[in-house]
Design brief:
Blueprint (H helix, E strand, L loop, with lengths): L2 E4 L5 E4 L5 H11 L1 H15 L3 H7 L1 H7 L13 H28 L1 H20 L4 H29 L5 H5 L1 H20 L7 H7 L2 H13 L4 H6 L3 H12 L5 H16 L3 H4 L6 H16 L2 H6 L1 H7 L4 H29 L1 H24 L1
Antiparallel strand pairs: 1-2
Helix pairs in contact: 1-7, 1-9, 2-7, 2-9, 2-11, 3-4, 5-6, 5-7, 6-7, 6-10, 6-11, 9-10, 9-19, 18-19, 19-20
Subcellular location: Membrane
GO cellular component, one term: membrane
Keywords: Membrane, Sugar transport, Symport, Transmembrane, Transmembrane helix, Transport
Length: 370
Amino acid sequence: MAGGALVSTGEVKDYAGKVTLFVIMACLVAATGGLIFGYDIGVSGGVTSMEPFLAKFFPSVQQKMKSAHENNYCKFNSQLLTSFTSSLYLAALIASFFASATTRVLGRKVSMLVGGLVFLVGAILNGAATNVEMLIIGRLLLGVGVGFANQSVPVYLSEMAPAKLRGALNMGFQLAITIGILVAQLVNYGTNQIKEGYGWRISLYGAAVPAFIMIVGALFLPDTPNSLIERGHQEKARKMLQKVRGTDNVDDEFQDLIEASEVSKQVEHPWRNIMEAKYRPQLIMAICIPFFQQLTGINVIMFYAPVLFKTIGFGDDASLMSAVITGLVNVVATCVSILCVDKYGRRLLFLQGGAQMLIAQVKIKRFLLV
């Protein structure tokens, strides 16, 4: 199967080569970096709905839960609890800036390795926590790990994948996130059955598993040809490109990669240039697409799913099982997108997904007003 890429003239250029088992395995291993983010999204909301966890670290919230006269939504109103949940995202935001430089200078696999190691330490610290301070420090370390993984893994996947499968293989990262969410929700449901009250520790320790997978994977993953060229290892880059494309005939693609690297190095003041009027459409889309995707609130829903179900009257087990069902739908929908993205394009998925979310949110709003 031939690969393809957009060249500077705007036409699609076909390169020799095929989709090799090597590149698929490399992309699958790299995509597991999404597991750490997904697992954390799924596990945190479940843990914060467990009474033994709340009784140990947030007793005021646990006491509010016993107050039948109080509004369900107010029972989880705690600045300390909010600090625990939100500290990861603040750390991830800050870490992503440092991860960008690390990914560019030292390579994508080094950035993934650093992210995995820091996330592993954070998982162990959270699982062993005896006070809120340990919890928050652990969450901050988890956030650093997520920041490095989110910065490096999508870049790695895009650079390794043949152009005709780039959408599907790059979405492997998103699939890993959804699988991580589902696994975490299943773990939460299981650990909630432990009557001794230490199930939350197992859930939090469980984050060490995807971190370990990411660390081991990063040790054995090859550098991408793009990264090797950026760092001046052109001969290594050629050999790697031949390996991932399954052919020695990579001259055209290799030359294009070199030219693209040289052009990027010649760009002066990139941040100033992107503000110019001719680049404004690209700038607006680059900001608006991820901004409005997050503004839909889906991450909040996935994160707080057990808590949300609990506040509308579900029991502990029912709320966790409802979150599992939500996670399962998320995985299935991502699989459908992977099969469709390179065939029908990104724009159609945007339109379909946006319309579906709009209809669903209108229905939910009407339900809440009844």
